[in-house]
Design brief:
alpha+beta, Cyclic Phosphodiesterase, Chain: A, five-stranded antiparallel β-sheet, four-stranded antiparallel β-sheet, 3 helices
């Protein structure tokens, strides 16, 4: 496990005026190979559907699959991170593999400038990831973790694309991470890593 706290000091900090809030969440990260394949899928979708006004966010280095949201804060503090660290320390689960095989527009449209854009995502199997989510929720004493649709966001576009099967590829999950997101600045900081059992 590795982590740092420089971003959440209780001392006064120089915050960008464009940052909206701090978010803290657990996620799994794709391998370099999966990032490359996901990027190719994104490029193909843009071309095949002649997508206009596309927001190519997140960048490939920020591709991830969210597992459990710790919370959103006006200012992230050490106690928020400490609570997340304690929750992660109770996880004892085996590593697993998940399959990504479907793309579709997902969730609500987000207003960006003059356009309403919806996320276009890669969907995957939920069973093992749902168990990791359940364990983390229990550690936070949240007995019900809510509905869960594991996905990796590829881009945002006003064009709605229906569920489409793609050639499947697999993501080996051997660890999960804790991410601090500076919402509005599209910055992700990985502040903790935990290995799953081999």
């Amino acid at each position: 496990m590795q982590y740092a706290f420089s971003f959440c000091s209780d001392e006064a900090t120089n915050r960008s005026p464009t940052k909206q809030k701090d978010a803290l969440f657990f996620a799994v990260l794709p391998s370099d190979e999966v990032r490359i394949r996901a990027t190719h899928v994104r490029q193909r979708l843009v071309a095949e559907h002649s997508l206009q006004d596309v927001l190519l966010r997140p960048a490939p280095e920020r591709f991830h699959i969210s597992v459990f949201g710790v919370g959103e804060f006006g200012r992230l503090r050490r106690e928020h991170v400490d609570a997340a660290m304690r929750a992660a320390s109770v996880v004892v689960l085996p590593s697993f593999e998940m399959r990504l095989d479907t793309v579709a527009s997902f969730g609500r449209a987000r207003r960006d400038g003059r356009m309403h854009r919806r996320p276009l995502v890669l969907f995957g199997e939920a069973a093992d990831l749902s168990e990791l989510r359940r364990v983390l929720a229990n550690a936070f004493k949240r007995g019900h973790a809510g509905q869960f649709a594991p996905h990796m966001t590829l881009l945002y576009s006003p064009t709605v694309i229906g569920s489409t099967r793609i050639e499947p590829f697999r993501l080996a999950v051997s660890e999960f991470v804790l991410i601090h997101s500076e919402v509005g600045l599209t910055r992700h900081h990985i502040i903790g890593r935990w290995r799953l059992a081999a």
